[in-house]
Structure formats: structure tokens, C-alpha cells
Amino acid sequence: xxxxKMKSVIFASIIASAVAFAPANLASKTTTSLAAFEDELGAxxxxxxxxxxxxxxxxxxxxxxxxxxxxxxxxxxxxxAVVGYLTAExxxxxxxxxxxxxxxxxxxxxxxxxxxxxxxxxxxxxVAFVGFLEIAVMKDITGGEFxxxxxxxxxxxxxxxxxxETKLSKRAIELNQGxxxxxxxxxxxxxxxxxxxxxxx
Length: 201
What we know:
The chain is an all-alpha fold. The chain has helices at 2-20, 24-35, 61-89, 113-117, 120-137, 164-194. Helix 3 (61-89) crosses helix 6.
């Protein structure tokens, strides 16, 4: 028993020595860098500020803003994608034909199947339209009030009538819904390829 106690004391001493010689400055710098984003929008319970890959461990505000911009944008696209997927899955289609050869919107299947049904020219038009939106429309032209503000002095929908607390709340809701939608559309796509639908019959 005394021998076990001796081993425990020696082990504790080794740990204490290792901690004493740990690179304190580096640890302090990393902690300080991460603390710079702990109060940012989206850092909320239960995870708080979550950066397991250390993408902004250096505390670079410009890099953080760029990543936040991409996160918001992908979240918005994913929300539209989930709504579009569920709408098409429910059998709702536009009337008429999608091309001059007589392919009706109603005959186009949902999900990946649409890629093999729509002609190459049709796919090219979709890609071109998305490219136009990316280059000319969905970008922060005037600087904006915050990262991801695409109003560009054109559309407001009463945003300026909200107080700061309400604005912050709505932005947090959008961010969380976008995060959920990114996981949601990924799950729908993966399960479609696996042949296991997530949507009840």
C-alpha cells in the first residue's frame, strides 16, 4: 500500500514538473485568440464558440468574417434547397414543359434523378443563372451593416425598424436555421443515394 502511495506521489510530481515547463506563452496566446470570438454571434449554448479544427485559432478577424460570410451564404442556400427538395418530393411542379422537346416539369423526378432527365442545355442554363447571382447579385456591394448583409440599399423589409436586440436575435435564428439546413440537405442527399428515404410515405 505504501508502495502504491509512493508511485502516486512520484506520478503527481512528474505531472507538476511537466506543467511547470509547459509553453505558457503559447497557451496564453491561443486562449486569448479564441477569446476574441467567444462573444460573436453564433457562439451559444451548449457548445459556445466551437472551432474544433482551429480555423481561427490565430484570432484573425478578417479570416473569421470571411468564414462567417461563407457559413451564412451556405446556410441560406441550404434552407432554399431543403424547401425545394420537400416541395418537389410532395409532387408540386410548375405547369407546362421544361424544354421544347416536350419534357414536362411534372415528369422530372426529384433529387439526383433530375440531373439525368433535364437536358445538358437546361443544366447549363441553371449553372449560368447561379453564376450570375454569385457574381452580380448575391454580394455585399455597399459594405453592409454586418457580414452577410446583402440589402445593398435596395431591399429592407422593415429591418431598420427593429431595435438592436431584435436584430441580433433574428440574425442568430437565421444562422442556426442555416446550420440545421446544411445538415438537413446533406442527410436528404445521402439517404437518397442509399435508397432510404427520410420522408414518410
